[in-house]
Amino acid sequence: MLAALAMAATAASLIGEPGCQTRCGDVDIPYPFGIVTSNGGVNCSLPGFEISCARTGNGSAVAPVLAGTDIAVLNLSVMPRPQARVLLPVAWQCFNSTGDSTGKSYGTVRFNADGVYRISDTHNELFVLGCNTLMYTNSGPPGRYKYTFYTGCMTFCNDSGSAQDGKCAGVGCCHVDIPPGLTDNWMQFGSTSTWSHADQEFSPCDYGFIVERGYYSFKASDLTTMPVNQTMPLRLDWAIRSGGNSSSTSMSCAAAAKKNKPQYACVSDHSECVNSSNGPGYFCNCTQGYEGNPYIVNGCTNINECARPTEYPCHGVCRDTEGSYECKCRAGYQNDGNPKEQPCSPKFPLAAQLALGITLGISLLIVAILLTLMVIHKRRMNEYFRKNGGSALQKVESIKIFTKDELNKITKNNSEVLGQGGFGKVYKGTLEDSSMVAVKSSIEVNEERKEDFTNEVTIQSQMIHRNILKLVGCCLEVDVPMLVYEFAAKGSLQDVLHGDGTHSRLPIPLDLRLEIAIGSAEGLRYMHSFTNHTIRHGDVKPDNILIDDKWIPKISDFGLSKLLKVDNYIATMVIGCMSYIDPVFMKTGLLTQKSDVYSFGAVLLELITRKKIVYGKNSSLIIEFCRLYDKEGSGRAMFDEDIATEENIFILEQIGKLAIECLKDDVNDRPDMNEVAEQLVMLRRDMKYGKAQNKSPRQFEGIATSDSPRSFATDTTSSSAAISLPSATPSREFPDL
Ligand SMILES: *[C@@H]1O[C@H](CO)[C@@H](O)[C@H](O)[C@H]1NC(C)=O
Ligand SMILES: *[C@@H]1O[C@H](CO)[C@@H](O)[C@H](O)[C@H]1NC(C)=O
Ligand SMILES: *[C@@H]1O[C@H](CO)[C@@H](O)[C@H](O)[C@H]1NC(C)=O
Ligand SMILES: *[C@@H]1O[C@H](CO)[C@@H](O)[C@H](O)[C@H]1NC(C)=O
Ligand SMILES: *[C@@H]1O[C@H](CO)[C@@H](O)[C@H](O)[C@H]1NC(C)=O
Ligand SMILES: *[C@@H]1O[C@H](CO)[C@@H](O)[C@H](O)[C@H]1NC(C)=O
Ligand SMILES: *[C@@H]1O[C@H](CO)[C@@H](O)[C@H](O)[C@H]1NC(C)=O
Ligand SMILES: *[C@@H]1O[C@H](CO)[C@@H](O)[C@H](O)[C@H]1NC(C)=O
Ligand SMILES: *[C@@H]1O[C@H](CO)[C@@H](O)[C@H](O)[C@H]1NC(C)=O
């Protein structure tokens, strides 16, 4: 309760002197105004600003009046302008029909004994109502004439209908602005003789008054019905004229602060003196950033501007300071000017922020995804490497293990396809030493087959023979391992004999065919004798005999040979052309080296007949040749016509006979590859011997003249044949063998 009282006292002290009543009726009474007290002890006002709190009518209600008068006070303000709103009497004069005055009032009232008030020129205006009327007010100290100011206006009406509501421009009503410095309310009338009002029942009275701007608007009826002895509100400016004598001295700020220090009215800190703009004197104002009452000690208090954003705008973060306030843009916002005046804008526009954020986010995401993919890829490659037996193969010296990247570089990303292998496409590649290689998929490797695979690759890499396609290396970082072989430029024997569809079939001389047969046989023989003699090719056929650029045959695609140990594969994996397959193996399921011999027999038949294993309308080369041989004791009718010359016939017959041997049903009747190779080599020797006897090598090379005699001397008992070259020698050049 004490605190509440203290607060109330503080609040009261802000507008009035301590111990003084600061409110009367509905009106606050701020110092320098003060209510006149009857105890006489305390002066609650500065001189000239006394207010009486008077009873109105018969009740207990009170209202302020200027002390010593009955002028009602409506409002008193100190800040921002020193003003008092009061009711002052209207001046009037009335006439009877003969134009004689029946009564008047000049509105004179003594409200300004100390000269602190002056009528506000900016907030009031002067009205005159009447129909043949001049009214004016005069005020101020004597000058050129009796007063300093004379102001008023005249109004006239032609007849009773002249005056119009809302029109106050000299017909029934006139009004003028007033000058500053007016201190009195009284009105002067034009002389009744000059300004006759006879026969003017429509406007019996004249009225003159100063009134608050905008308060009064003219109504024509007021000319007849407006009561006399009434009041109008108007605003008074006031100023401090210093203690002492009102009429003699009027202090400016400079004078007040200098001479009358003890009586200087602006006593609050943060207050300042302002010269009155309306007449002499000064008033006080709180300095900028402060509000309250400058006429009392500590009356000016700091304004919390941040609490009043409409009066003190801030478009950023507001912080109150003593006498002022700070306004800064929020973090991340900026303002070229003053954030008190114009809104802050984001340093980065929202779109830019969004764009930046999204870009960053996406970049991070992409990086994350790429990293993950790389890790997954690397892990998978390592997995493949392990799965494909990489660690075992790394120990094998003769084989190079390529990384996936190296392989892609070698094959230029698989740009050149050589053909279709058993397990996928075969790509051409170039090693760093510019030697050509063929890269092909092997079979898929799983845990069961891993050991077989690594063994197989190991064995292949160790088989080094001019008639065996060399395994250069492998790549294990892929799902299905890739194998890198030396490159056979002329393709397979299948292509050479029967064409690969793109090239026309070219004649092939017998000795070249014999060389191919010998080479192939040597390759198989080497294979069969390799290590423990258990290695079989398993799929001997012209497709798997590759020819390099020097016409040297290379046995290839023996990937199955080792894996065939596993029973499961026999049925499923031995695919391809069934015709080359040993019928014994078909029956027993037992693959032996003699099965390779059988298949090689079929290849020999193809070499001498140049017929496919299945030719014509489903004729089997093996069956037809055996049948022919059984019938005629010779396969001559089926020999390739290109080479079936008398000179060659012996050799051809011998090869045919050897083929028949190889194709024997009983595996024990078949020669082994060793014998086959030896017999072929002997045939080559026979052929050269026979040739050396009969023909010059130049003729063999196809430069024989067309008229060379077709002579032949045959010794059927001899193993050698003397055969002359046919006149229609192929014109195609053949490589050196
Ligand atoms: C009050 O005012 C009267 C005259 O106006 C003066 O004589 C008197 O000293 C003043 N009293 C105080 C306390 O200022
Ligand atoms: C007292 O004033 C009230 C209005 O405020 C009025 O109605 C009443 O007649 C008055 N009484 C006397 C005796 O004047
Ligand atoms: C008195 O004046 C103040 C400031 O001019 C104003 O806020 C207030 O409403 C006024 N009161 C009346 C009753 O006119
Ligand atoms: C008007 O007033 C004058 C002077 O008081 C008087 O002599 C005159 O008779 C009056 N006229 C009328 C019509 O009442
Ligand atoms: C002025 O008044 C006379 C009579 O007094 C009338 O005849 C005339 O029409 C009026 N003129 C105007 C413009 O109203
Ligand atoms: C107007 O007021 C004066 C003085 O207060 C008084 O003598 C006069 O009778 C009043 N007139 C009217 C019409 O009330
Ligand atoms: C004010 O000055 C006038 C004359 O100038 C004098 O008559 C009056 O007594 C003075 N009043 C005071 C309070 O000094
Ligand atoms: C007030 O007026 C006086 C002279 O009339 C002048 O010297 C003084 O500087 C003015 N003070 C202010 C604050 O305007
Ligand atoms: C009084 O001070 C306030 C703020 O300091 C200012 O806005 C106002 O204009 C000042 N009044 C006068 C009359 O100088």
TrEMBL record:
Residues 692-737 are annotated as: Disordered. Residues 412-682 form the Protein kinase domain. GO terms for cellular component: plasma membrane. InterPro entries: EGF (IPR000742), EGF-like_Ca-bd_dom (IPR001881), EGF-type_Asp/Asn_hydroxyl_site (IPR000152), EGF_Ca-bd_CS (IPR018097), Kinase-like_dom_sf (IPR011009), NOTCH1_EGF-like (IPR049883), Prot_kinase_dom (IPR000719), Protein_kinase_ATP_BS (IPR017441). Residues 1-16 form the signal peptide. One of its GO terms (biological process) is cell surface receptor signaling pathway. It is found in: Membrane. ATP binds at residue 440. Residues 711-724 have a biased composition (Low complexity). GO terms for molecular function: ATP binding; calcium ion binding; polysaccharide binding; protein serine/threonine kinase activity. The chain crosses the membrane at residues 350-376. SMART domains: EGF (SM00181), EGF_CA (SM00179), S_TKc (SM00220). PANTHER family: OS10G0142600 PROTEIN, WALL-ASSOCIATED RECEPTOR KINASE-LIKE 21. This is Protein kinase domain-containing protein. The gene is LOC101779396.
